[in-house]
Every structure is written in C-alpha cells, then in structure tokens.
Amino acid sequence: MKSREQEYKEIFIAEALEYFDSLNRHISELEKQPQDDRILAEIFRLLHNLKANAKAIGYLQISDVSHKLETAFSLIRNKELSFSDEVVTVLFDGIDMLGELITNVDSPIPVEPDPVLLRNLDIIVDSLSDSTIELAKVQKYTTTKNLSLSDLIYIQIKKLDHMLNLVGELIIDRDRIISLSRELNNDDLKVVSSHLYRITEELQYSVMDARLVNIGTLFNKFPRIVRDIASAERKDINLEIQGQDIQIDRNILQIITDSLLHLVRNAITHGIEMPEQREKAKKSRAGSILLSARNDRDNVVIKLKDDGRGIDLKKVKKTAVKNKLVAADVAEDLPDSEVLSFLFEPGFSTADEVTEYSGRGVGLDVVKNAIDSIGGRLQVDSKLGVGTTFTMQLPTSIAVKGALLFEVDTIFYAIPLLHTEQVIALDKDELHEVGDVMVADLKGETVTVVYLHELLNADEATINFGDKTRLKGQVQNIVVVSYNNRKLGLIVDKLYRQQDIVVKPLSKPLDKVDLYGGVTLLGSGKVCLVLDVPAITRYFIQKR
Q: Do 98 and 235 fall into the same domain?
C-alpha cells in the first residue's frame, strides 16, 4: 500500500507538470502579445502556486526557481521590466529548467539548476531595467526529450457522482439476478451471478475510493479560523488537530464544512470562558479545542471537544419551557440526554449577548439538518465546568448505505445501520404501559417502544401507542434506533438481514410523507420502503 507521503508526491508532480505545460503555452502567447495583462496574470498565478506547492512538500530547488521567475514576471506586469528578446530567452530557459527539475524529482541522479542560468535570472530580478542587463551566454535548455504524460488525471466530481449512481443501479440489478439464480436453481446462472457480485462489489468500492479525500483538506483551514475568532472574542485558544489523514467522501466533506465551522464558532464564543474566568475556575488561561477524526468500521467519526464552561442543563430546561417546547413539570424529570436534544430545536439559543460570531438566532438545528441530509448522526455530551464534545458519525457514501431489512404487515422496510443501536427480542410482559406509550428497561435505561404497524398504518383517530393488546404473539422483535440523543424501540413483525441498499427518492405524492426517506428494490424485485429515523423520532416526540 502506498504511503501518504508518496501519494502527496504523485499529486504534486501531476499538478506541477500541468502547470509546466500551461506556462509553456502562455509564455509563447505572451511573446506574440507582450502587452496582454490577462496572460501575464495567469503566468504569475501558475508560478506563485508552483512555488508554494513545491515549498510545502520540500522541493526547494523547484520553489527557488519558481520564485525567481515569479519575481521577473511581477516586474514585467508592473512595467519595470520589458519583455525584450534577451529577457525572453532567459525566461524560456528558466521555464525549461523548471520542467527538468519537475520530471526528475524521483531520479536517482538529481538534476542541478544551471548556475549561469540562475545568475541571469538574478540579474533580471535585481537590475529592474533591461538597459543595465549584461547577460551571460548559457547552454540553452531545450525540450528535445520524448513527450510524456502524467499517470494521474483530475476528474470533475459530478462525473464521479454520475458513476456512483450508475453503480447503484447495477447493484439493484445484480441482487435481482442473484435472487433469480437461486429461484431457478441453475448452476450456470449461479456461477455468472457469483462473478457479477464480485465485479460489482469491486467496482462499487473503486468508484467510492476515487471520491475519497483527506479530511485534512478541511481540518487544516481551522488554525487560521480559530485564531481570527479567538482574537475577535479576546480569548486565548490552543487548537489541536488529529486524524488529518483519515479519508472521507468528498461530497460528504463539502456538506459538513459549514456545520463544522458553526460548531467551532460555538465552542469559542459559547464554550470557552474568558481568560480571567478560567483563572478563577483554576483552569489555564488558554482554552483548548480538539478537532479529531477516526474510522469506525464503515463510518468516519469527527469529534469537536472543548474544555470550556460546559452546557448549563438548568438554563437549557428554562429556555425550553420558555419556548413552550416542554411543560415545566415534565422538564424537571427529563434525562440529561433529552435536555441536551433541545439545543437542536429551530431557533433555540441560550446566548445572552450578540457578538460578531454568535447569538444571531442561527442555531444548531442548521447543523443537525445538514448531517441528517447525508444520513449521519450528531451527538452532544457536556459536563458543567468541564467542557463539551460534539460527535459527528458520518457514512462513507451517500448513494450506497448499509441497512437492516425487516417486515411489517407483509411490507418490506429498511432502516440505515447508522441509526440502528441494537436488535433485541423481548417478551410482551417486559413491555410496560405508561400513560399512552409502552416502555422497556434496556440495560438500566428506560426506552419508549412503538409498534411500527400502529405508527405506519393505524387511523389517526384510533391510534394508541400504549395498547399492548394490539401486539401479535408473545415475543416481540425490537429494533432500537437513536436520533438526537434519544432512543426509540420499533417493534417489527419479522427481521431479515443486513445488506447494502441504494436509496432512491420517492415519487410524488409519496415524497411528502415524512416518515419515509426513500425506496429501494430488493433482489426479489419487491419494493422496500426506507424509514426516515429522524422524522419518526421527531413525529413521536411531538405526539407525546
């Protein structure tokens, strides 16, 4: 397996060779149109980027030559140096030398820049006027070598999106063919379907792999962001970043970018105390924020942890009651996890003051909705006076999801595994009627349990979530799901298996039914509805 360093090197070389080709094209155009500011600006941009990239990865000779050429073209742009024949020759030679250095970075015998050529570049840069230039004659660099192409190419993300959608369609047809081969009991068809399964799976993972980017492409933007927000808030912040090399689907990273920025702002403005307050609380004057990423089976887990004041649950309860999200007497008995879930309600804020970065009514519900849209999970844990941790659990792919299949009233359903906590079987006697709901004790935690048939099919006027007599049989299969720090048990008729599914949006008018997140086709050809766990949880909490 390639090292991360080797991957970075290959990406740099591929990009640098593209820059080199573009520089040759643009400088040839400039020779014909020496006054064209647009061409000059593009050459300057290419050299500037090449200099910065080469310096970042440690190719200092490439960086040095790029810098000299960048300076020369800067002088030409500012009309301090004319694009005369003598200057043109040196600049062409300088660009050719860049090409030599780039194509030979991996050569066992390193290529050294020609010291006479470097002197000429220095003369051009330092003299500021071609009337005083006395250029040395040099062996001219020429591109007489065989032409070669890079092994790497750059692909528009929308093309990869289209490929992944096609793979999704292929998976549906593959599962149908495999199911047919079993039904027909045809040996030849079984061999072909088995091979098709392997090829489709490899194709799926290859396309998904092509979409992966290092999470560091996002994380590495935060030191500057944290510095600016901390300065505006007059706070000292130490930011630690871990897991930059973890890879994630580019589209998912794009979707969570604003969410992560929002959480970082909140951590600094709401979470970390002022230096004087921290000293009184026997903490260091500087607050700490940890931004980390790690793999967890097929998912990526991103954590944002601060050592600030923590979330005041009493204040959250008070605000929830004030906003009529819960009755005062009910709020007192709510578990901490449910109290914290109020933070994600639209417009919910406990901020006492408006600053440049907080207290403007844009709440955590925006973050929650973004993560919900990709089938992810967001959790918050907090301890007053100690700090707060936000945890994002994200899928590896948007198009293909791991799901648990089951049946209710002879209809097939699926729940994304990301929202599935556990599957258990309980005797009907272990379910207790409390008010108009059923509850069960799961490892010391009281969890509300709902019969899915009642939720999905019962008439609104006769619905009764607490009526145990409506259950079929003595033993109940329960899928425990979680969303927004709340757990919910869903009673199903039959449990099947876990499998990857391709979720398709529902057609009108079914797309307006909140409880369904989409539809998929099973290998048997039967339609399977995908349940929207966030919508079910929200619906049930509102009903309660």
A: no
